[in-house]
UniProtKB/TrEMBL annotation:
This is Chaperone protein DnaJ. Gene3D superfamilies: DnaJ domain (1.10.287.110), Heat shock protein DnaJ, cysteine-rich domain (2.10.230.10), Urease metallochaperone UreE, N-terminal domain (2.60.260.20). Its main location: cytoplasm. Binds 2 Zn(2+) ions per monomer. The gene is dnaJ.
């Protein structure tokens, strides 16, 4: 791609984000589009493949903070009335912009005039004293995120979960070199291994990635048959992830170095596993505490009783004092969630009166007799007193 093409393309539009989008928003938009447009998901669809390449190209610039800054500055510079050199505006009429930059640098030195503009364009198009292009520089691999769903009990007690991932990985045949086993890449004669060539365009001389070596500085005569010389291939990997005890719903677990492979010797990215926990039919959770609601009868609360309550790993016996109110919460200490750091929660037991839907004659007579015996007791007396005292 030429320097002019790079500036005139709207990479933000390609990804569907605003020009002030955060790095996370850019990454999220790219991943969504990459999943939708990936050739594996659209076999034989040339339009989707071309769009996938455009989206990847845009992400390659906007995901690099330095490149994004230079891209934004160049777009502001050439926007509006200025125009792109050779396409109208200040680049017309045989006016030599290099003369302007040269004079400005002589008059103002490194700090004066427009001397910094050449540095901006040189940095944008990888022209900084003949340094290697970004394609040849080591670059850490991207992080990868995946989701896993586990049962409530597994989240509380911990579990080992198998994962299958289809993602870019270092080629197992060439081990990332891109060359066929037994062969070695050689230095590109066109760019002398720098990955850059200088081309004249209008009033400017721009450096851009070498087309022969694609900016890598190396030529592969015998590409690896598995990855086609890329050094990276899409593979389905099998991993085993240890889910720690007490993991929360939505929590992410980091597996260092299990993301996409780095380029040119750089380290791989990380894999983040987001955990989704299925609800339990009986137990709930409140931090490190487990919760449960236990139905009881009115006589059990009134007269007191002993209850046997289930836990995730057995049962516990609790004494309910006489006169206990419905809704009271009892605590079974140490029967909650135990984390890796040794902290442990409790089991919180909410007592709730179960009201019978139907009563036979004997039970109804007994309840009527109880109501008559306690007719002098007004359970709302305190409430009425407060209302009357307002």
């Amino acid at each position: 791609m030429s320097s002019r093409d790079w500036i005139e393309k709207d990479f933000y539009c390609e990804l569907g984000v605003s020009s002030d989008a955060s790095a996370d928003e850019i990454k999220k938009a790219y991943r969504k589009l990459a999943r939708e447009l990936h050739p594996d998901a659209n076999p034989g669809d040339a339009k989707a493949e071309a769009r996938f390449k455009s989206v990847s190209e845009a992400y390659g610039v906007l995901n690099d903070p330095a490149k994004r800054k230079q891209y934004d500055e160049a777009r502001r510079l050439f926007a509006g009335g200025g125009g792109f050199p050779g396409a109208g505006g200040f680049g017309q009429g045989g006016f030599d912009m290099n003369d302007l930059f040269g004079r400005a640098a002589q008059q103002g030195g490194a700090q004066g005039g427009m001397g910094g503009l050449g540095d901006l364009l040189g940095g944008l198009f990888n022209r900084r004293g003949g340094t290697a292009s970004s394609a040849a520089r080591p670059r850490r691999g991207d992080d990868v995120e995946t989701d896993v769903r586990i049962d409530f009990t597994e989240a509380v007690q911990g579990a080992t979960v198998p994962l299958r991932l289809s993602s870019p990985a270092a080629c197992g045949t060439c081990h990332g070199s891109g060359a066929k086993p037994g062969t070695t890449p050689h230095t590109c004669a066109t760019c002398s291994g720098s990955g850059l060539v200088t081309r004249s365009q209008g009033a400017f001389a721009f450096s851009e990635p070498c087309r022969d070596c694609r900016g890598t500085g190396k030529i592969i005569d015998d590409p690896c048959p598995e990855c086609g010389g890329e050094g990276v291939s899409t593979k389905t990997r099998k991993l085993t992830v240890r889910i720690p005890a007490g993991v929360d719903d939505g929590q992410r677990i980091r597996l260092a170095g299990q993301g996409e492979p780095g380029r040119n010797g750089a380290p791989s990215g990380d894999l983040f596993v987001r955990v989704h926990v299925n609800p339990h039919p009986v137990f709930g959770r409140n931090g490190n505490n487990l919760t449960i609601t236990v139905p009881v009868t009115y006589p059990e609360l009134t007269l007191g009783t002993t209850l046997t309550v289930p836990t995730l790993d057995g049962k516990v016996t609790l004494k309910v004092p006489a006169g206990t109110t419905s809704g009271r919460v009892l605590r079974a200490r140490g029967k909650g969630i135990t984390r890796r750091d040794g902290s442990s929660g409790d089991l919180l037991i909410t007592l709730e009166v179960a009201v019978p839907q139907n009563l036979d004659g004997k039970a109804r007579d007994a309840l009527a007799a109880y109501a008559e015996a306690t007719a002098d007791h007004d359970p709302r007396a305190d409430l009425n007193a407060l209302l009357e005292g307002r």
